[in-house]
Amino acid sequence: MSEVYDVVIVGGGAAGLSAALVLARARRRVVVVKGGAPRNAPAEHMHGFLSRDGMPPADLLATGTSEVMRYGAELLDEVATGACAEPQDGYSVRLGSGRVVRGRRVLVATGLRDELPDLPGVRERWGSDVLHCPYCEGYEVRDQPLGVLGGPEPGALAHSVRQALLLPQWSADVIFFPRGMPLSDDDRVRLDTRGVRVLEGAVAGLVVDGVLRGVELSEGSMVERTAVFVAPTFYANDDVLVALGCAFDDEGWVVTDESGRTSVAGVWAAGNVSDPAAQVIAAAGAGSVAAMAINADLVFAAAEPAS
User: Fold this and answer.
1) How many CB atoms sit inside 10 A of residue 165's CB?
2) How far is CA 243 from the centre of its chain?
3) For the chain, is the Cβ count within 10 Å smaller at the N or the C terminus?
4) How many Cα atoms within 13 Å fall on the side-chain side of residue 136?
5) How confident is the model over 95-131, as pLDDT tens digits?
6) What's CA 86's distance to the chain center, in Å?
7) pLDDT tier at 1 (50, 70, 90 boundaries)?
């Protein structure tokens, strides 16, 4: 049997590394299972993170990794493939290599994945001039001709009208392409009030020539745009949470309290795996909050009188 860590953190993004930093500084024995490529890997820079605005996402992770290791946390360049409760206490997390790591507590910070509209050019330019977050990238495309793709995808139905209503803060030239998505009369009034043009008709794809040139309609014409916003459908990377038996809400997201504690004792979740709207700075903060709650939980458990 391998030695048991105080905390196994599954996910080495902003939330996981932030939690590891707090816990390692609290002199806990911590291991971080880094996982696969981060969600924001295609982005050249991240924005809205105080003191880190404009930093490449990879640089943030490299800096965070160095800080965490300086305090003695261990990092494994592995992917978690499963997890289960231990017969006595704590949890086991299985890794892709076949190794098993054991922890008295588990924090899952595995993020989410974006399912994009199945249109030519969207995946190719994702993170460059095909964007999804006005607060993250709106300033970088200010005063440019912008488009917003609606559509039948669940993400578009929930978020694309909101994107179109927000974007006139950054550009006076915004066109909304519903792609067959039904718009209510109220939606049309709101879009018109914000100065957003609605262009009906089927979209064939994006025209790309090194950079985005425009939106191609099915009848053959092109509407020039230098950036297009899309609303991905979000899917949490929650296999570990499912394996551990955590409760999920009606929309499929893990249920947590304000500290990230799940319905399973000893298991926490932080970042995009539990909050799809969290930007990097919010995910890092959630990891810190969860870490303090986990440390307190371990302290109170140790302080309980022996029965």
Assistant:
1) 19
2) 20
3) C
4) 23
5) 999 999 999 999 999 999 999 999 999 999 999 999 9
6) 29
7) very low
